[in-house]
Task: structure prediction
Amino acid sequence: MTVNRPRGTRDFLPEDTARRKYVENIMRNITCNWGYSEIITPTFEYLDLFTLKSGEGIERELYNFMDKGGRAMTLRPELTAPVMRLYVNELQSFPKPLNLFYFENCFRYERPQKSRFREFWQFGVELIGSEKPDADAEVIALAYALLKAVGVSCYMKIGNLAVIRTLLRGLQPEIVSKVMRLIDKKEYVGLEVLIEEIGVEDQLKFNLFKLIKLEGRYITPQVKEIVGNIPELVAFEKTLKLLDTYGVDYFLDFGIARGLDYYTGMVFEVYADGLGAQKQICGGGSYQLIQLFGGGDVPSTGFGIGFDRIMEICTLVNPAPKKVVLISKPETHLEAIKLATELRKYLPVRIDLMERNFKTQLSFANTINADYVIIVGENELGVGKLTLKDMISGEQELLTLGEIIEKFS
Result:
């Protein structure tokens, strides 16, 4: 019987895995250099963690189950909620701000399609404990730096929900939530119907539609004409000035709403061509979630990068390590093992495990596209040297072990 992999999952072959690890390590190194520390949370959590954050309706998208103790559990569908839970459980007494990042797999039970899988990987950052413009700017600048470093051609849109909400003051919270979701989905016809139903004044309706359709690089003067020089906009302008200092390329779009109630101010999304309808590769903003999970009123800013999506369009090619095969005869096999053990401190080396003859070992090296073979023969050992053969050029050299190590160092 043949057992196939589950629908919506993938196997990564050695070449794919090496490329993913190469890009992942670049992102890890950059994030660490910005002063962020990696954390790891459980693959499964209590179901309540995600229904508290996103509502009961999210259950249909989850791999949720009852464990043997009768507890409702789920495989994590994202990582922001687990990080907030971790903060409440373990990190409340730590100095602020906390600069954290993660790279883990997540699970959603949805229909697989191009660039959407049931198991996927997310690289993310959470900056906990600061609501200052500097925090927002650093998080955006870090996302920009990561995507630029891995060779992704993309464009960034930035908005601000606090500015939009100033126009909606006086409306019921549930109405504001509906408005935000319709803005996020660009369902302007539905938004107009809702506004008509609740009897919003014509001026407010006019100002709201004018604001959410504003896009461009230098549009804050137009925003001021609509909402005035409110504190939320002043703080946002500081963030934008900092982004200019960081050298971030962006433009503003006040129609970005992210569609979730816990976002509080700055929001941003990053898009890339070549992915069809699923072109968003990164999203985030400033938010309040910790209070929901039993912590204090602690501001946070973060983002998540869809790692699988950027791997589809990433232009980086990882420098593959040299493939070296060590060839020996039965009389020199034990010495070959000793030499391989020493060489493996410096480079990847394979030796024969099949008791093949000399010719077959050489053929095997050619089959796996080895860059070099090192021949451990009796004559070579007799003079304290080894034969290094370049499998591409065919050139051979008689070298000592130290000379070989120096060549590959």
Summary: The chain is about 40% helix and 20% strand.
